């Protein structure tokens, strides 16, 4: 027997003195119970939003990009803003499941499953925008490099837009595989205790015939670790490449070398905020307070205040460089189009500053980090702020170009542009509601794995060890 | 496909399981497998399983991805269709690093997951014999393969003495077949193969 000692000072990851059986029962309960009325209400609202989105997209596909208010200088508007926003949100899941796994952060086990699901749905939403922005969406496969009858005319491998195609599709695929490989053992748990025929059949298919063999677990562990190792640079590369879409251009406000780290920090920031929004609801609705504890919420709020401050430093650095470079175009973009409150889009810059930089500072206080209401409210504020960030970057750099005669047009979206955005919310929440009902929202096997070292019942026993004399302790645990 | 005889011992605590595995092995029994609800660290070593080489396979898939990206892009941009992009070099290696990286990750991840599924024989509609339904819930199920010389009753009491909360004797198929979990039939079992 090897010694497993965990300090009592660190709070337990699982509350209540639970057995393995109870863990299964607690997590599988929502799957086996009938959905609540609240679930139906939420699901139908989400589905209605999705339908509206589908109609908005139908308008755009049928009548063309003119259904949106994009104009001669603002060629990217809400669509690319929303794309970057969703991709950013999609970063938290892999960050939690991969980077925190490599850093051995035990608390990730409570939230990784739902966060990964959120990642996948967010990336699905993100992908819609560039695809439908193409206009002739039925030609979307032209972005893939395949031998064709047009020459063959290949795609431009030197273009950041193509890097994005590869980055996002790889990210989606790898996240999906990572998520699903973790789900297989948990589906087997649901299958083996299913009491209806249909459930046994469907979870039987989904669990791929998993038995829990030691050799399979050994391979599973190896697979998870390598996928985590691969996903870590991947998640950093994806938003880096998204930032290249802007940074490799020569537009003032985009042409910035700090974009990659600044975008990645912003992505983690908004992703964690979305995880908080969902977790606060999930733990309440499904009664998962023992697994998604205040400790989890607090840890994520710490990440939010850290990344929010990194983003804040990036904003200030940009402003400084706008002046220090003595480039009048840069100076105009940063100090007039953005930072001057009374310029046409000044309101969006200061909205961004207030939401992203000032308000998260509240999380320096422990009481605030552990307050559910503040957490939920701030998670919404942060995501509004991060949406403004992308809007500021895109629109304030474009609406006043080098030709002052085209400055007169003030870009604001049409109802179909907004409908498309609303529709992705519908897609996201429709998927999330289905996930929450039919999938184990917490990784059952992983919770069982940490239960004996970080569960409350186990922690309480540590008190006895801590009071032991050193000689007794050595006598009991030393190998002879 | 063949049916074999197994003795099954169920444990409810991994702390009891480890010494039991050791004793069963020293007693000379052949452990077919131990089914656990989660990855029990060190159990593979206790059972004497060798390390998996899955990560090595992942590395090979990864470099295959890198090579695929580099060779395809360089062939396309220097030989097949040397597109003049602002007079820049056709062989523009720095600009290809993002795609080379992405394909490395993609190939490694997809390849590893497929290899994992192949090695563990996992796929939709695959069905296997499960020695105990609670092996995915809260029991650690040790399965010992019987030989002609095995005394089943002795072995069962040996397991019980070493902390098994439940023991059982089963005749089971150790491979996989296509089937549904809500039905019990094995499709090939009833078939009579008649030699012509």
What do these coordinates show?
The complex is a heterodimer of chains A (480) and B (196). In chain A, helix 3 (78-89) packs across helix 9. Chain A has one domain: Formate dehydrogenase/DMSO reductase fold (Up-down Bundle), CATH 1.20.1630.10. Helix content of chain A is 70%, strand content 0%. Chain A has 480 residues and is mainly alpha-helical. Chain B has 196 residues and is an alpha+beta fold. Chain B has two domains: 3-51 and 126-178, 2-Layer Sandwich (Alpha-Beta Plaits); 54-119, no CATH class. Chain B has five helices and six strands; from the N terminus they run βαβαααββαββ. Chain B has a four-stranded antiparallel sheet with strand order 2-4-1-5, with helices on one face. Chain B has a two-stranded antiparallel sheet with strand order 3-6. Classes of the chains: A mainly alpha (480), B alpha+beta (196).
List the helices and strands and how they pair.
The complex is a heterodimer of chains A (480) and B (196).
Chain A: H1 20-32, H2 37-63, H3 78-89, H4 91-102, H5 108-133, H6 160-192, H7 197-206, H8 214-247, H9 259-285, H10 294-324, H11 328-338, H12 346-358, H13 366-369, H14 372-398, H15 415-438, H16 444-454, H17 456-467, H18 470-477
Helix pairs in contact in A: 1-16, 2-15, 3-5, 3-9, 3-14, 4-5, 4-8, 4-9, 5-6, 5-9, 5-15, 6-7, 6-8, 8-9, 9-10, 9-14, 10-11, 12-14, 16-17
Chain B: E1 3-11, H1 14-26, E2 30-35, H2 43-46, H3 54-80, H4 93-119, E3 126-128, E4 140-145, H5 152-161, E5 166-173, E6 176-178
Antiparallel strand pairs in B: 1-4, 1-5, 2-4, 3-6
Helix pairs in contact in B: 3-4
Total count of helical runs of at least 4 residues of chain B? 5
Oligomer: heterodimer
Number of strands of chain B: 6
End-to-end separation of chain B in angstroms reads: 22 Å
Count of distinct structural domains of chain B: 2
CATH architecture of the largest domain in chain B: 2-Layer Sandwich
Please name the CATH topology of chain A: Formate dehydrogenase/DMSO reductase fold
